[in-house]
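Lab meeting, item 3. Inverse folding demo.
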């Protein structure tokens, strides 16, 4: 799908990687609806892009419906809904985490994607075209030993995207799941890595990641990676010898 002339909702676009996506999509000719829980961020980015901004918590279904209504009121339709918003938190090796953290990650990484599908699939199916794009993580294809709720809910995000693709691709709705490796975002920096840590050399800039995403949308690929083949390698290792993969992975992994 080409972005030129398309109406795109990007959640989590009041800052970080989502802001980079919103700016790049706009440069590609899309009309972007900016939405984030960060009100000042939404105002800043939507003002810069001269577009619609909605500051809401998308873990509530009525708020997702409100964003969809605002997009339709402004532009008449929604061509692409990009469920990008996420939460990582600091590394917590061996910590099973609180219900509060589990509820946040589940609601944000899984239910908000479901709410988006409920909001836009009927119109997309009726038109015979549309695009659902969800962010998970390369963690969804492997695991992250020091962040249990992040790892589990990112697996669930990938699983939901798979199900949506199986059921709705035949009806004209494209579905992609973005599973990036390390990116230079506030989420990565929240891990308090010391200056000169190797992860900074590995991590891609938001602008470079946005270019990867635009190319993948154009190709309508289901699995989108910033390190091509990294997820497949993990899946092959699991299939070949799951116990060996567990033993190899049983030390805290690099946060993504």
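The presenter then showed the designed sequence:
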């Amino acid at each position: 799908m080409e972005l030129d002339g398309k109406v795109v909702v990007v959640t989590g676009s009041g800052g970080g990687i989502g802001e980079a996506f919103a700016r790049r999509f706009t440069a590609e000719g899309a009309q972007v609806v900016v939405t984030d829980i960060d009100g000042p961020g939404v105002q800043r980015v939507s003002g810069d892009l001269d577009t619609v901004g909605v500051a809401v918590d998308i873990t509530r279904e009525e708020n997702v419906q409100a964003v969809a209504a605002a997009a339709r009121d402004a532009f008449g339709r929604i061509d692409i809904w990009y469920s990008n918003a996420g939460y990582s938190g600091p590394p917590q090796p061996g910590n099973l985490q609180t219900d509060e953290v589990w509820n946040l990650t589940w609601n944000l990484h899984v239910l908000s994607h479901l709410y988006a599908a409920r909001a836009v699939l009927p119109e997309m199916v009726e038109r015979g075209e549309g695009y659902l794009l969800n962010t998970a993580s390369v963690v969804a294809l492997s695991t992250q030993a020091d962040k249990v709720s992040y790892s589990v809910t990112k697996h669930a995000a990938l699983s939901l995207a798979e199900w949506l693709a199986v059921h709705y691709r035949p009806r004209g709705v494209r579905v992609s799941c973005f599973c990036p490796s390390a990116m230079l975002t506030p989420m990565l920096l929240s891990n308090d890595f010391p200056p000169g840590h190797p992860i900074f050399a590995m991590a891609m800039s938001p602008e470079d990641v946005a270019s990867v995403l635009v190319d993948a949308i154009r190709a309508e690929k289901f699995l989108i990676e910033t390190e091509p083949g990294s997820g497949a390698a993990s899946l092959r290792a699991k299939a070949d010898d799951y116990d060996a993969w567990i033993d190899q992975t049983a030390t805290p992994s690099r946060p993504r």
